[in-house]
Amino acid sequence: MKEFKVNPDFAITDEQSLRSLFDATHALAIQKCQGTLSKHAQAFIRRSPFLCIGTQNLDGKADVSPRGDPVGFVKILDERTLAIPDRPGNNRLDTLVNILANPTVGLLFIIPGFDDTLRVNGRATLTTDPELLGSMSVNDRAPKLAIVVEVSEVFMHCAKAFRRSHLWNPDHFQDRTEMPSIVKIILDQTTGAPSDEDAMRKIDDDLEDEYKRTLY
Predict the structure, then answer these.
(1) Total domains, the chain
(2) Which residue from 7, 118, 172, 175 could staple onto 166, CB 3.0 to 4.6 Å apart?
(3) Tell me: the pLDDT tens digits for 132-152?
(4) Alpha-carbon gap, residue 46 to 164, rounded angstroms
(5) C-alpha–C-alpha distance, residues 133 and 127, integer Å
(6) Which residues are bridge partners to 42 per DSSP?
(7) At 5, is the secondary structure helix, strand, or coil?
(8) How far apart are CA 98 and CA 58, in angstroms?
């Protein structure tokens, strides 16, 4: 595949040029941005089993990580503070290391079946407070740490992206078997996947067993 490069003649490099392409922002789009968690924002968070958290390091390298748990897993500590449990993962710690370098974070809360989403921006701190972690236990297992977010901006995001993508529409669901398993993809990209189907199936089964053992 030929390498693509943006034609500099068509690159947008300043805000004035960018805004000239669009109509003026509707007043409500500006006014809807709140500095605290309203009753509606809190209700949305309590219903949400899934969020994405965006972070950056000091060099501007960005990362987005999914976080999921039972409904209401994010603790609302007060109208300006949230706590997110950090569950077992692959131990790359990309999000956590970024927060140590640059505490600014962006959260996107998603509720299955809802086309609108909730966006929260703020500053994050990592904590091992045992009382807080104990309140986030699942299956009698507390997280090793929590991400506490001091909220600076909160606003609802409209449904257009989810409606364009038909994300929740079963008629648009895709067959996962049409692509290789995640293990095969990673092995193909690194050390090489075994050509023997039985050996590959065994590796996939081992991953499923690991999911069951290490989810919490």
Answers:
(1) 2
(2) 172
(3) 999 999 999 999 999 999 999
(4) 26
(5) 9
(6) none
(7) coil
(8) 8
| Segments forming the whole domain that contains residue 82 | 25-165
Report strand pairing: 50-56 vs 62-68. Answer: antiparallel
Query: What is the per-residue pLDDT across 155-189, written as a single tens digit (0 to 9) for each?
Result: 999 999 999 999 999 999 999 999 999 999 999 99
Q: Are residues 63 and 159 in the same domain?
A: yes
Token pair, residue 148, equals 């506490």
**Residue that is written with structure tokens 């003026």 in the block:** 24
Start-end of H helices in 48-158: 94-101, 130-134
Half-sphere exposure of 166 (CA within 13 A, CB side): 6
* pTM, entire model: 0.94
Phi then psi dihedrals of residue 205, to 5 deg: -65, -35
The position carrying tokens 């990209």 is 189
Does residue 99 share a domain with residue 190? no
* Cα–Cα distance measured from residue 52 to residue 63, given in angstroms and rounded to the nearest whole number: 10
Q: Which two tokens stand for residue 163?
A: 């409606």
Look at the block and give the residue holding tokens 């409500």: 28
**Tokens representing 72?**
């209401």
User: Does residue 192 contact residue 199 with C-beta atoms inside 8 Å?
Assistant: no
Nearest to 133 by CA among 141, 123, 121: 141
